[in-house]
Write a structure and sequence with these properties.
Blueprint lengths: L1 H9 L3 H7 L6 E5 L5 H14 L8 E5 L2 H15 L7 E4 H12 L10 E3 L1 H14 L9 H12 L11 H17 L2 E3 H14 L1 H10 L2 E4 L7 H11 L5 E5 L15 H8 L4 E5 L7 H11 L20 E6 L2 H18 L7 E5 L5 H10 L4 E4 L8 H14 L4 H9 L7 H13 L4 H5 L10 H21 L4 H12 L1 H8 L1 H24 L5 H12 L2 H4 L5 E5 H4 L4 E6 L16 H15 L2 E10 L1 E4 L2 E4 L14 E4 L6 E2 L27 H6 L7 E4 L3 E9 L6 E6 L3 E6 L5 E4 L1
Parallel strand pairs: 1-7, 1-8, 2-3, 2-6, 4-5, 6-7, 9-14, 9-17, 10-12, 10-13, 11-12, 13-14
Antiparallel strand pairs: 15-16, 17-18, 19-20, 19-23, 20-21, 21-22
Helix pairs in contact: 1-3, 2-3, 3-4, 5-9, 6-7, 7-8, 9-10, 9-11, 13-27, 14-15, 16-17, 20-21, 21-23, 22-23
């Protein structure tokens, strides 16, 4: 086995070899994107077993996904050869579950406990809310679950929300339900081992003696409980070896603490730090952009990625006038590269900050018969909120559409349960009519009870009113009226504030889709729009294609790589997201997220932004992301910053790049804003303002011209408000 180890060590670069062969004691490997961190982590386990002759059972390897654990073990077998013992590898949750089954009885946890996943938890919380007579419209199980999880992980609810107090009161009720069911949720799996070790130091000592070395992957994604658990497990020898990259920490909203990398060095004096900066994935040009971008974050561990690979193509920056142009240009470039450069469909990825941006790209891909798949998301027209709204539109065209009626009667909730639906269905079957026909003749339907009638009549009245309005409305107004009459937006805000922004943004995207169709086809009616949507959604034939273009969020792209990457919507309010505007730490996480997107590209990278985009139902004049200003112009081709003038470039075969001429709009940072522009348009995104009633806030969006300028301001403790500048009692705070 030692000969195999020698061969393996020769295959490493100097930094990797130093990290793999580190002396015992605490160690951190700061592994930049594409620098071979999995190879190093696997190599470390191999080195301990083959060179240090550590028993494989005395090495614990903790990863963040089961897939990563499986890959690590598979690589280790290939390095060490058949017959070699390999250490156990798995996630924090899987290891903690094993631990609690072995020793949990010491703190009253049954060995046969069940593990409740998110759906199980939501069912329990739904029952508790019903018992407390709290409707889902007031507080959803999903929202309550997120609050309880926050508290279980050591957080304290602020009390700003009226139901925070109730959540605190329901915590013991929920825990008692779990206890009665002999069940643990995901948070319990990480929290209870700490309680176990605190209550029974003898058990902690047994576990500590079992492992001579603890190896942990993706350490920047650990939360407080995971960090404490790792520290306790590795003591007193402190042979704790962690691999991570603070520049790729993008899960702060889930409780991840990239600062654990720094805390580690503080808590364990003498920690050895190794930096992996040689990149084996991307070209030099792509790495130059990545390095420029991430350098804008402060307080990070200094790293600069480099490569011995080819210089490669410059990163292309594209400005378009409208979002429809963005989709057509990106898909056009994909077609061009596929035809002329020999790329396969699977070589292309389109990345975005939010799933709502996928719609126009999906439609163009379908129209050009290009196979695609969405990773970590649902096709636009298959998303629940879109199907909910389309149901209202479908019954305007076809009153007998029973599936649409079932969805309408259930969403938003109207107190129409299975009993009322059964009465309705029985009457339809008894009289040989559709559900829709029964609904519109309710008073004459003998089988409908008074109770059912009281619940169903308001629905039919709403649809009848919507139908009447639609006779005099164009296509766009029909969709807008359906959103207004359905009250879906307010329903999503009530049931789950965490996801409501994206759901409402998707509804606004449906309005934009209708507007585009109406502009292209003035004769379009609602039935034409619905027919086209049905064909777009029916894309199952592409799912079996062996090669497909990949669409995904930048969060979902972490850990993946593609020869050609398009990052779209690189604009203020998207990346960085408008919710991050008021926090330096949130802005830095947004920059890290874009960095993760950039470092997914191997050969070619495109960054695009639109001058206009419909956001939250309003046509917004968009500004390029502030992060683009962190990138040296010499590393970009297409449009340069901040004046956005055209940069003439050629590709590797001397062909002029397909860059469309759109009249650019000036954009600059505050520090070099053109005074005349500032005088004409006094409020810019990011400005601090003072409101006489709401106090201090940050401008997160703006629309309209000077005569009718509206700004959206995020106020501390008050929330987001849309203000008409000429009427609002506000002033800019310099």
């Amino acid at each position: 086995m030692k000969k195999r180890l020698e061969s393996f060590l020769r295959s490493l670069n100097d930094a990797q070899r130093d990290a793999v062969t580190a002396a015992d004691g605490p160690a951190i490997v700061l592994a930049g994107a594409g620098s071979g961190k999995t190879r190093v982590l696997t190599g470390r386990a191999f080195y301990l077993i083959a060179q240090q002759e550590v028993n494989a059972n005395a090495v614990l390897v903790v990863t963040f996904t089961n897939k990563a654990a499986g890959e690590l073990q598979s690589r280790l077998r290939s390095y060490a050869g058949d017959g070699c013992e390999i250490p156990w590898a798995g996630t924090f949750h899987s290891y903690c579950a094993r631990l609690m089954r072995m020793y949990g009885a010491a703190i009253g946890v049954s060995r046969d406990f069940s593990i409740y996943d998110t759906d199980d938890t939501d069912q329990v919380l739904g029952e508790i809310l019903r018992d407390q007579r709290i409707s889902r419209d007031e507080l959803s199980p999903a929202t309550l679950r997120s609050w309880l999880s926050f508290m279980k992980n050591g957080g304290t609810l602020s009390g700003k929300h009226p139901f925070h107090r109730i959540a605190r009161e329901l915590m013991p009720v929920y825990n008692e339900r779990l206890r009665m069911a002999q069940a643990l949720d995901f948070d319990d799996l990480l929290r209870l081992p700490l309680d176990l070790f605190a209550a029974r130091p003898d058990i902690l000592e047994i576990v500590q003696r079992k492992y001579d070395h603890v190896l942990i992957d993706e350490f920047q994604d650990t939360n407080r409980h995971q960090y404490e658990f790792a520290r306790m497990l590795a003591a007193p020898q402190n042979n704790l070896y962690v691999v991570g990259d603070d520049d790729q920490s993008i899960y702060g909203w889930r409780g991840a603490e990239y600062r654990n990398l720094f805390q580690f060095q503080h808590d364990l004096p003498g920690t050895k730090v190794f930096r992996l900066e040689q990149n084996y994935r991307s070209t030099r040009q792509i790495l130059d952009v990545a390095n420029d971008l991430i350098a804008g974050n402060k307080g990070r561990e200094a790293k600069r990625l480099w490569t011995e690979a080819a210089e490669g193509e410059k990163v292309t920056l594209r400005q378009v006038a409208r979002t429809a142009d963005e989709a057509h240009e990106v898909i056009g470039e994909i077609h061009h590269l596929q035809r002329t450069k020999g790329y396969s469909w699977k070589d292309f990825a389109i990345l975005f900050r939010v799933n709502a941006l996928s719609r126009q790209f999906e439609e163009v891909l379908v129209s050009q018969a290009i196979p695609y798949s969405i990773v970590g998301g649902t096709r636009f027209y298959e998303r629940k909120e879109i199907k909910d709204l389309l149901a209202y539109l479908r019954v305007l065209v076809n009153r007998d559409d029973e599936q649409a009626w079932r969805r309408i009667l259930r969403t938003p909730p109207r107190g129409i349960g299975t009993v009322t639906l059964k009465i309705l269905e029985d009457e339809a079957r008894r009289t040989d009519r559709s559900i829709g026909q029964v609904l519109f003749t309710l008073p004459d339907s003998a089988g409908i009870t008074k109770s059912a009638l009281a619940k169903l009549e308001p629905v039919t009245e709403k649809i009848a009113a919507l139908k009447e309005k639609s006779r005099e409305s164009d296509l766009v107004r029909c969709v807008e009226q359906a959103i207004e009459q359905s009250e879906l937006a307010s329903y999503y805000e009530r049931i789950d504030p965490e996801t409501s922004d994206e759901r409402i943004a998707n509804l606004a995207q449906l309005v934009e889709a209708a507007r585009e169709r109406a502009q292209m086809h003035p004769e379009y009616e609602l039935v034409d729009f619905l027919n086209e949507i049905a064909l777009v959604a029916d894309a199952d034939e592409y799912d079996e294609a062996p090669e497909r273009v990949t669409l995904m969020t930048m969060h979902a792209a972490k850990g993946l790589e593609f020869p050609v990457v398009f990052i779209v919507g690189v604009e203020e309010k998207l990346i960085p997201h408008q919710r991050s505007m008021g926090s330096v730490s949130d802005l830095e996480e947004e920059r890290r997220l874009l960095y993760v997107g950039v470092t997914r590209a191997r050969e070619r990278l495109y960054l695009t932004y639109s001058q206009t985009r419909y956001l939250n139902g309003m046509l917004e004049f968009q500004e390029p992301s502030r992060f683009l200003h962190d990138i040296s112009q010499e590393h970009l081709r297409g449009w340069s910053l901040p004046g956005m003038r055209r940069v003439e470039t050629q590709d590797d075969e001397g062909e002029a790049m397909i860059l469309h001429e759109h009249k650019p709009r000036h954009y600059a940072r505050k520090s070099n804003t053109n005074p005349s522009v500032a005088a004409i348009m006094p409020y810019q995104i990011g400005d601090m303002v003072q409101h006489s009633e709401f106090g201090l806030g940050v401008v997160t969006a703006k629309s309209g011209d000077l005569a009718d300028l509206k700004i959206r301001v995020a106020f501390e403790g008050v929330g987001s408000k849309l203000l008409a500048v000429k009427f609002a009692p506000i002033r800019k705070v310099e």
